[in-house]
Amino acid sequence: MTDKLSPKRVANTLGIVAAGVSLLCAIFVLIALGTALSLFSNIFHGIDITQIAKSSVSFGSIIIGLIEAFVFGFLVGWLFAVVYNKFK
Fold it and tell me: Which residues contact 60 (CB under 8 A, 6 or more apart)?
């Protein structure tokens, strides 16, 4: 049995998880914008993102964000698996 990771499987998995997290984030912003901005300001170590935040989120921007999150997650997942396999 091999302990190597499948780069394609890991990439797809991380891409899907990243897109899912992006969707949950978008829903959170749509439901509770003020709370979301406060939480995200804390995550970014006190940077006041309310000064740069939009007052609304469009459906198109949510779709583009999902695609970007999937692609970024896919690339990071693929790279992770390749590097992991090199050390194995």
Answer: none
Q: Nearest Cα to 29, choosing from 50, 44, 45, 14? A: 50
C-beta separation of 88 from 3 below 8 A: yes
- For the CA atoms of 56, 48, 32, 30, what is the dihedral angle to 10 degrees? 30
pTM for the model stands at: 0.84
The DSSP result for 2-68, as a single string, is -----HHHHHHHHHHHHHHHHHHHHHHHHH-HHHHHHHHHHHTTT--GGGT--S---HHHHHHHHHH
Q: Which residues contact 11 (CB under 8 A, 6 or more apart)?
A: 73, 74, 75, 77, 78, 81
What is the tens place of the pLDDT at every residue in 45-86?
878 888 888 878 899 999 999 999 999 999 999 999 999 999
